[in-house]
From TrEMBL:
Keyword check for Transcription: yes
InterPro entries, alphabetized: Homeodomain-like_sf (IPR009057), HTH_AraC (IPR018060), HTH_AraC-typ_CS (IPR018062)
UniProt cross-references to SUPFAM superfamilies, sorted A to Z: Homeodomain-like
The species this protein was found in: Arsenicibacter rosenii
Matching SMART domains: HTH_ARAC (SM00342)
Domain HTH araC/xylS-type: 99-178
One GO MF term attached to the UniProt entry: sequence-specific DNA binding
UniProt name for this protein: AraC family transcriptional regulator
Keywords: DNA-binding, Transcription, Transcription regulation
Amino acid sequence: MTTIQIKNMVCNRCKRVVQETLEKLGFTVLSIDLGHAEIADWPSRLTVTDLRTALQNEEFDLIDDKRQTLVEQTKALLISEIQHQVTEKKEAENFSAFLERKLGYDYSYLSHLFSSSEGQTLEKYIIALKIEKVKEWLQYGEMTLSEIAFKLGYSSSQHLSTQFRQLTGLTPGQFRKTDNAIRQPLDRL
């Protein structure tokens, strides 16, 4: 069994596309999750370059650096927690303690590594993920801003509104009324 680390996997659709790509290449996929796939064996006719090219054609890439693997694991955990509402994070736990617990590294190391790799702080990335989730829920129109703030762990709807406006230039109410509201792909945050 071999684990392949894959960059830019952000959703269940990504998992399906990666699995289909691997299977077309002749891999036997044992399991797949955000950021990695477990394979039974490596097809003898296939090179790493072949695999990288096939993944890049689908806007993914191989990760062959341990530090980049850790950055991608960090992103996958945060995306699962914020975007997919997986809730592995304990209710009273902050994201720094959550990442330390799940990844086994000190948060300051993770934060430094993330910033140097991604060009933004972990805190800004977390906020950007939350704001994209807020945009999604605002477009659905099924929850109030207070309900959204509560679900995402904000101390108040005002705090959420302030962060939302700082990132988008719009209030949540203005965004909700906008016909062509723009959301960002998660792999571009």
